[in-house]
Amino acid sequence: MIRTLNCYELDIQAIKKLGLENSANNRDVDFRNCVVKKPWGYEYLAYINDNVAIWVLKIKKGFSTSMHCHINKKTSLLILYGEVNFSNLSEMYRLKAEDGVLIDKKIFHSTEAISDNGAIVMEVESPTDKTDLVRLRDRYNRTGKGYENGDNIIRNTSNYDYVFFDRIEQEVERFNNKFSIIRFNNEEAFKNNFNEDNYDNCILLEGTVNAKHGDKLDAGHLIDAKQLSKCTIMSGISIMTIKKI
Questions:
Q1: 3-state secondary structure (DSSP) of residue 96
Q2: CA 39 from centroid of its chain's CA atoms
Q3: CA distance 125 to 147
Q4: DSSP character for 90?
Q5: Which residues make up the CATH 2.60.120.10 domain(s) of the chain?
Q6: Chain CA centroid to CA 116, Å
Q7: How does residue 113 score in pLDDT terms, banded at 50, 70 and 90?
Q8: What is the arithmetic mean of pLDDT over 58-73?
Q9: How far, in Å, CA of 218 to CA of 224, rounded?
Q10: pTM assigned to the model
Q11: Closest by Cα among 67, 72, 84 to 3
């Protein structure tokens, strides 16, 4: 199940109270081919283009990301492995593998792993600015601080379960899921070749699709494969597909 969260007055008031001082000390850092250590585990960049960045988060049991928001970018989370408690300022949801959340700009949220072996979460960001970060609360004394840099960035990825997606038709099996990147150049190719039964969820990497209810879905959108099959495309699109194995 994929939930959609919209910005509430609680979020707006919290932003005003905290202020918008974001760290820009890593704006020029190339996050490809590295791992970023976190108090709750680690994360790394798994895919990037001009509009979309996809990160993989490994969260240890009982540990949590900060209660944070992004002022200018939308975010999607997809649980790949394990279970988590996902919270905003007013509610908490228990999410399991294949569940996702679409998070609008300025929504405070946090994710805590509750399964014995922790959780693996895929995070989709658009646009790709990692410095767009406001921390409201944090268990690890990072409230108000910007994104990690310096000693927290590890260039040797050999000790981590690391993968980077960098080409069309690439297929990878990891985290009990099969991932692939597919390009459809037009509506006919999409309708003739996209089989919803082969996938669970999809991430729109490039292009725009028109949903059945009339909304336009842009790059960075997480969507159920069955819903995507009912969409129409105006021009070419690229998608990442995810299937549990």
A1: coil
A2: 19
A3: 15
A4: S
A5: 2-23+30-154
A6: 22
A7: very high
A8: 96
A9: 14
A10: 0.93
A11: 84
Q: Which helix (H) or strand (E) holds 18?
A: helix 9-18
Dihedral sign for Cα atoms in the order 49, 210, 171, 45? positive
Residue 68 backbone phi and psi in degrees, to 5 = -140, 165
Contacts of 10 (CB under 8 A, 6+ apart): 89, 90, 108
CA-to-CA distance for 43 and 56, rounded, in angstroms? Answer: 5
What integer pLDDT is reported at residue 51 of this predicted model? 93
Percent of the chain with pLDDT over 70: 96
Q: What's the gap between Cα 117 and its chain centre?
A: 20
Domain 171-244, CATH class in plain words? mainly beta
Considering only the top CATH level, what class is 2-23+30-154? mainly beta
pLDDT value of residue 27: 58
The answer to whether the peptide bond before residue 127 is cis (omega within 30 degrees of 0) is yes
Does 26 score more than 80 pLDDT? no
Quote the CA–CA distance of 50 and 44 in Å, as a whole number. 17
Helices within 103-224 (DSSP H only): 187-193
CA gap 227, 236 in Å, rounded: 18
Q: Which residue has the tokens 């981590």?
A: 160
The CB density around residue 64, as the number of other CB atoms within 10 Å, is 22
pLDDT mean over 222-228: 94
pLDDT averaged over the chain? 91
The Cα–Cα gap between 10 and 108 comes to 9
